[in-house]
Amino acid sequence: MITKDTFRQIVNAQRVTLLGRDAGLEREILTGLTFTPTHAQIISGIRRSGKSTLLLQLIKDRYPTGFFLNFEDPRLYNFEFDDFFRLDEIISQSESSAIFFDEIQVIPQWERYVRQKIDEGKQLFITGSNASLLSKELGTKLTGRHLTHELFPFSYREFCDFTSVTASADSLETYLHTGGFPGFVDNPDPEQLRQLFDDILIRDIAVRYSVRDIRTLRQLALFLVSNIGKPVTANKLTSSFAISSTSTMLEYLSHLEQSWLLFLLPRFSYSLRKQQVNPRKVYAIDTGLIEAVSASFSEDRGRKFENMIFLELRRQYREIYYFSEQKECDFLVFERGALRGAIQVCYHLSAENLSRELDGLWEAMNHFQLSRATLITFDQSDQFEQQGKIIDVIPAWKFLLNPLLPPHHPSPGSSS
Asked: Which H or E element spans position 284?
């Protein structure tokens, strides 16, 4: 239980600290955060991606009297549901129409209080760094009363703006190594990314899900981060680590995904059952984090490059698969169930790999009757045509400036 006087001290101290910070670069998702008193705006994403700074930008630019509270403050560790009643009195006294709750998912039954404030016509902005805990509550008490947004580390466009560099192969090379965590871009000390990695494993996974074997969890996470772009299965991983069962391994993988540390990309299939049992490809949240913690001593630019392209696609689209039949295509992008495009990623096209890279795309294009597809390289441009189908080869730095894919158009003569 927390007294009202303690609440006031915490709220005032947090506000002074927040407003004293630099608002930094205006994030791209700000345009999607509009005033909607009938819905809570949920901003989720990995730790240190800039969620608190985003709230600061909203307060300074749009809601100067907004009420802010970060629930991860150590002084709030004993917060109980009944404390919301005392907190409510302080919010009422502030006469704020907008309320900003940072990392509220650590408080049990928080969704009941949020629903109450929405019913009162308050505008709520809520951040969280655990997708599972957020989605569980959002799917019960707040169904139909929230809008969700994901905040990733800096995109390449944001990176260029933040560092005042021009989009080019040189700046892309820097971005590939640095990644997009704002604090690391500003002060590239790898130790802060290693600490972030451990914080996620301990605070967002071990503590919240009562995982006792932190050593094995860390070994698993390091293995996956060191094997980005490669297919994995829970069965094979279970046999490689000291984990009791496949179901436990599946839980660990889910925790790593829900914390936004990793993504497991499914293989495309019209059968949901096959999607679930087929190997999934591993991608990490940030290429700088990969370099900082990876156990791989050989630098593999190609796989980090593929990871970087995946992240940009994932910023724009939720439904992405890889395609693998006789050949393989890196990414199939869907939106609302409709195919938007097929994308192959190759760091550098050469005589040795040209046929392999093109054949994977041709097969995907034929399978889905696509007339056009994209092959992304580091800094090469070209175009290939076969039976009326076209593959555009474009440099990554150009693609990353405008990553939205055009609507899918069937190839000539197709019935789709």
From this structure: strand 280-284
Cβ(378)–Cβ(305) under 8 Å? Answer: yes
Query: Residue 103 carries which DSSP code?
Result: S
- The whole-angstrom separation of Cα 190 and Cα 210 is 28
Note whether 398 and 376 are within 8 A (CB). Answer: no
Cβ–Cβ under 8 Å, residues 228 and 304: yes
Instruction: List the alpha helices (DSSP H) in 139-200.
Output: 156-163, 169-178, 182-186, 190-199
Assigned CATH for 4-150: 3.40.50.300
Q: What's the CATH class of domain 156-301?
A: mainly alpha
User: Could you state, in order of their start, the residue ranges of all structural domains in the chain?
Assistant: 4-150, 156-301, 317-416
Mean pLDDT per block of 10 residues along the chain (416 residues) reads 94 96 94 83 93 95 94 93 94 90 88 90 89 61 82 98 97 97 97 97 92 95 96 96 93 94 96 89 98 77 96 96 97 94 97 97 97 97 97 97 71 48
DSSP 210: T
What gap in Å lies between CA 308 and CA 153, rounded to an integer?
11
The whole-angstrom separation of Cα 356 and Cα 63 is 54
Q: How many helices (H) and strands (E) does the chain have?
A: 18, 14
In angstroms, what CA-CA distances link 34 with 28, 30, 50, 123, 318? 13, 8, 18, 10, 21
Q: What are phi and psi of 117, to 5 degrees?
A: -70, -35
Q: What is the pTM of this model?
A: 0.94
Tell me the β-bridge partners of 149.
Answer: 43
- Residue 161 makes CB contacts below 8 A (sequence gap 6+) with 25
Partner residues linked to 124 by β-bridges: 99
Tell me how far apart the alpha carbons of residues 227 and 270 are, in angstroms, rounded to a whole number: 27
